[in-house]
What does this fold into?
Amino acid sequence: MAHHAHETNTGIDNRKLGFWLFIASESIFFACLLVGYLVYKDGYQPGAGPRDLFNIELTTVSTFVLLMSSLAMVLGVNAAQRNLGRKARRWVLVTALMGLAFLGFQAYEFTHFYHAGLSLSSSVFGTAFYTLTGFHGAHVAVGVIWLLTLLYHGRGAGLTADKADDVEVAGLYWHFVDIVWIVLFTVLYLLEFVQ
Amino acid sequence: MATAAKTLGILPRPTAATGFWSWVATVDHKRIGILYGVTAFFFFLVGGIEAWLMRLQLARPGLELVTAKTFNALFTMHATTMIFLGVMPLLAAFMNYLLPLLIGARDVAFPRLNAFSYWIYLFGGIFINVGWLMGTAAGHVPDSGWFGYANLTSVEFSGGLGPDFWTLGLLLLGIGTLVSGFNFIVTILNMRAPGMSLMKMPIFVWTILVTSAIIIFAFPSVTVALIMLMFDRAFAANFFEVAAGGSVVFYQHLFWTFGHPEVYILILPAMGIVSEVLPVHARKMLFGYSVMVFSTALIGFMGFTVWSHHMFTVGMGPVVNSIFSLTTMAIAVPTGVKIFNWLSTMWGGQIRFTTAMLFAIGFIACFTIGGLSGFMHASAPSDAQQHDTYFVVAHIHYVLIGGSIFAIFSGIYHWFPKVFGRLLDERLGQWNFWLVFAGFHTFAFPFHFLGLLGMPRRIYTYAPGLGWEFWNLLSTIGVFVLAAGILVFIANVVVTMRKPMDAPADPWDGRTLEWTLPSPPPVYNFAVVPRVHLRDAFWFHKHPEGKEQALEYGEPHPGPIHLPGQSLMPVLLALGPTVAATGVLFVRMRESFAVPVIVAGFVIALLALWGWAFEGEGGTLIEPGEGS
Ligand code: HEM
Ligand SMILES: [Cu+2]
It folds into this structure.
């Protein structure tokens, strides 16, 4: 039985409000890491720097996959709210798979960079790059585990309307992680090549 | 009779009503408040013993009671313990116990998360202190200052595990604090009694709201700083490795964008407590309520604009220093407004000099002195003289002991009868207050002179003939008096707890909703949640003064009240990160089993989360009137 929202002063469900606050706090967390990256990104000598390493085409594809996963999530939340349990379940599964694909791209990128000589200890650029994108990747991984738990939760009749709140909160998290990536992609990759 | 509600999930919830496990599994905000209070008081004593040892060492010039290395460990652990394990959790004890009662709620928004906050605080506190068991000589006790400045904390200069215990322990504590922050904000915004608009909330609730907001915006930057330190130390990263291009000043910025707001996390709730105690014991309404609310919010915001005043001597240049001087001085305005509001509250009141009131007045006196010395080093040129001298130590102690600790004692005497059903002895209370007050000034005021005479902070001994002997000796004597005062307090608690529970519901003629309940309150808090029409509704309910209908009782709760079920998942969830942190320690020690331990930590956390999501709702149904 879903634990339905008690009446609240703001009219917003406790969990949702709490989650918005969590997102606000996490934004500062990523902002601080990003500042760290900006402070250190030019410190790559004697090794290779961002321009030598980044493969912008590849990362554009992985970014696109992550963006589309947000769309799948929206469709999943929508289906759950309309009580289309099985359909919701399908979209959540698609979201999770796209998340995994993004992680696959990241794993490929990390190994590739590592073989090109960039490591956590090779330079301050390496330190800052792996920490920032690594923490983002860890957030995606947590999201994937969360979505898989939802799928387990929705075994049988699927993610029906009584679980719509659960799906929605997971969706909030997923969109947040996605938006963080868009900022990172813009600042780390796109701006690097703007001259 | 209380009946167990139907178990709806896969795992049954624990149901012990008394005994050890009932405390481990509790999700009741009142019990969690008591757990916080007792644990934090214990750590407060540990921090006190560390302080006492330092003062013994400094009593005379040239003493060799402890080594320089041990002294470093002592001042580091003293400050860390006092701030993160003592004062913050003592304030959290008040928030946990009182917040729902003050706003007419049955519990906080997320009871299980609340329990989790406590357990991870306990584990983090133990974690930070483990080094003491391994001895100070090898550097396994944190000894790089409570700010853990990079470079001092690099493997090169601190090869032992001290900084690892420190960073990982603080990361654990930070998780708990953040979770409490979310929990309290949601509770305040969503769960107030009907009719209690934001501007009718008790002022203490406002300070909890602003403090929680500071927490959720300030803790991420220290989290990042600590993670970077941990990466540097355990995984050979370069964030603060100057040779590889790392910047130690960047660490300071990250630390102080948290560090300064943190001092408001320590003082705003203290101000809130005093703002509740003063009106009750002066039998007058709080003067300038809305001004108090706005100054609280303003201080919360401005706390984020002044961090670089901790870095005036770093060499940021005159422009930056001037800007931060100005923003720092500006904070004195809302702070001063508060002081005048407290004085105006007492003005013309029928003051009862209870122990709670004495501590509240003591708070105002000490905090004002501390604010003045703060204002003095807000000016960058004079700070250049005072920085890293005992003048700063004087400032810290006036704001932190004089401010936070006095307010905490005031709150303890005020709310003890509500929590434990017994009134603390007033005669012992007076001894408690006067010894602490006299001891504190004897111990901390000389620091001003020592600072002006040029005695640096953090030295473990000094040569004779510098003119520091007298003030140092006096200060050490003061510590003994202060300690006597604390012992009287402990005696008072012991004596009081042996007496029967006979405190009336409303011993002080209180103003806020918690005094409408029996002492101690029943598990479900309010059998009938009242509708609030005014600020200080309970007071006007008793003394209408033309304001009838301040408080209205509606229909009693239909049928039995559902209480959230107990759960062991919070302890388990707190255990996960603690195990993972231990794994990172092993990485530092280059142990081969480090990675499996980290993985085990994550598995424990995942299992706990799974249990959390799928354990049944459980809980008990209780008829109003029972369990009180
Ligand atoms: C009127 C308000 C205040 C002003 C203008 C002020 C100003 C300052 C300044 C400029 C410093 C840096 C001194 C130096 O290191 O050279 C400082 C240090 C400090 N202040 Fe305050 N302060 C105020 C209130 C508070 C409060 C309310 C607290 C805590 C409850 C606090 C706790 C501290 C601590 C712990 C330090 C020392 C940090 C360290 O270890 O270096 N201050 N204050
Ligand atoms: Cu400050």
In short: The mean pLDDT of chain B is 94.
